[in-house]
Design a protein that fits this description.
392 residues, 20 strands, alpha+beta, binds P-hydroxybenzoic acid, 8-stranded mixed beta sheet, binds flavin-adenine dinucleotide
Length: 392
């Protein structure tokens, strides 16, 4: 049987960064990933890195490409009633965010891991966790060559995302969780065309929300609020561009640059938190423990914040048998998690139009938008959450 100190399930931002943080402390880890390297490096997800995320990657010497290719943003626009209202992040908070695709971070972290001489077990099938309440839990899986493998660990980190198996290993009667669904989803596209604006645009329109983002000076990322039951087949490229143009309408005119669509995806919006982030020797981090609707751009940043707490907690546990930080791990994470949950809910409900929403709700949304656009106090509150609250 193979042996390591920390068995990490999932090679997303949480799992890969945790492996790196542990390595810098001399703690040995094995990373198991269900998908192929190519798949995880191509999977288009988040785009916005909080300043705290960027600072951590810089401290670790992992931000070389991010600093060269990432796009620093000092503000974004809220577009409603046919006008833009800029949220000046830099003036309001002294901080900015960086637009840099999650899959680019994943590529950088994979490269950093391989450079340490340690691999990643890609295409690990049938991953199963055992003996979690003992001091030496095990992971079994079938590797990419079809060989049955078994790994004994001191600790297992469940970093396998919302649909992973780690959380499912916690008995339901021990799991305290909170769930909220929204009556809409996002249709996201990647377009081969320069962004139509230098900054992100969060647009609230009678027909629903739309978001203009980007990945590079040549690639635009766009999202449309759609019904959760919507099928991609019903969204031709022409229909997508028409709907985007309508929702981004601006008095005085706005030209949306069109181009070939490189990918289309529909993702439901959902909020979920399990406060049980630990069960015996299993620790959950990132989307495995909590998800937020993407409107607040918080998911990946929360995953990073979790492992930033988990790594030193595991180091203390494994090196000094000191369990204080490990015992306090969930509580430490959850105040940031709940703040992000609230902020994401706030952004989502302020900007989306629920099907059949009554005129009263409409008026409340517009009142909130006008308040944020006109009050420095309200805009500062939004901005400090958006750039990322201080870590400690
Ligand atoms: P994941 O990235 O989901 O990684 C989990 C990994 O585990 C995956 O590689 C998966 O293949 C693997 N895995 C799953 N099951 C198993 C198994 N049984 N065995 C082994 N491996 C397994 N967040 C932001 O901060 N900013 C944004 O702008 C933003 N925009 C988003 C836009 C969209 C459209 C979406 C969908 C998400 C967005 N997010 C955003 C959220 C962000 O992408 C996630 O929060 C982030 O990926 C969480 O990282 P993670 O490492 O916890 O989980
Ligand atoms: C993205 O670029 O993918 C993105 C940006 C801002 C968000 C969500 C997603 O709020």
């Amino acid at each position: 049987m193979e042996r390591t100190q920390v068995g990490i399930v999932g090679a997303g931002p949480a799992g890969l960064l945790l492996a790196h943080l542990l390595h810098t402390e001399g703690i040995d880890a094995v990373v198991l990933e269900a998908r192929s390297r190519q798949y995880v490096e191509q999977r288009v997800r988040a785009g916005v890195c909080e300043h705290t995320t960027v600072a951590l990657l810089r401290d670790l010497g992992l931000a070389g490409r991010l600093d060269r290719e990432g796009l620093p943003h000092e503000g974004f626009a809220l577009r409603f009633d046919g006008a833009d209202h800029r949220i000046d992040l830099a003036a309001l908070t002294g901080k900015s965010i960086t637009v840099y695709g999650q899959q680019e971070i994943v590529k950088d972290l994979i490269e950093a891991r391989l450079a340490t001489g340690h691999g990643i077990e890609f295409e690990a099938a049938d991953v199963a966790l055992h003996d979690l309440e003992s001091e030496s839990p095990r992971i079994t899986w079938t590797d990419s060559s079809g060989v049955a493998r078994e790994l004994r660990c001191d600790v297992i980190a469940g970093c396998d995302g919302f649909h992973g198996i780690s959380r499912q290993n916690i008995p339901t009667d021990l799991l305290t969780s909170y769930d909220h669904t929204y009556p809409f989803a996002w249709l996201g596209v990647l377009a081969q065309t320069p962004p139509s604006s230098e900054e992100l645009i969060y647009a609230r329109h009678e027909r629903g929300f739309a978001l203009h983002s980007m990945r590079s000076p040549e690639i635009t990322r766009l999202y449309l609020q759609v019904d959760p039951g919507e099928r991609l087949d019903d969204w031709s490229d022409a229909r997508i561009w028409d709907e985007l143009a309508t929702r981004f309408t601006l008095d005085g005119g706005f030209t949306l640059r069109e181009g070939p669509l490189l990918e289309k995806i529909i993702t439901p919006l959902r909020s979920y938190v399990t406060e049980t982030m630990r069960h015996g020797r299993l620790f959950l981090a990132g989307d495995a423990a909590h998800i937020v609707p993407a409107t607040g751009a918080k998911g990946m940043n929360l995953a990073v914040a979790d492992v930033r707490r988990l790594a030193p907690a595991l180091v203390a546990l494994l090196r000094k048998n000191d369990s204080a930080a490990a015992d306090g791990y969930a509580e430490q994470c959850l105040s940031r998690v709940w703040r992000a949950e609230h902020f994401s809910y706030f952004m989502t409900t302020m900007l989306h139009r629920a099907p059949g929403a009554d005129p009263f709700t409409d008026r409340l949304q517009l009142s909130q938008l006008r308040y944020v656009a006109s009050s420095t106090a309200a805009a500062t509150s939004l901005a400090e959450n958006y750039v990322g609250l201080p870590f400690d």
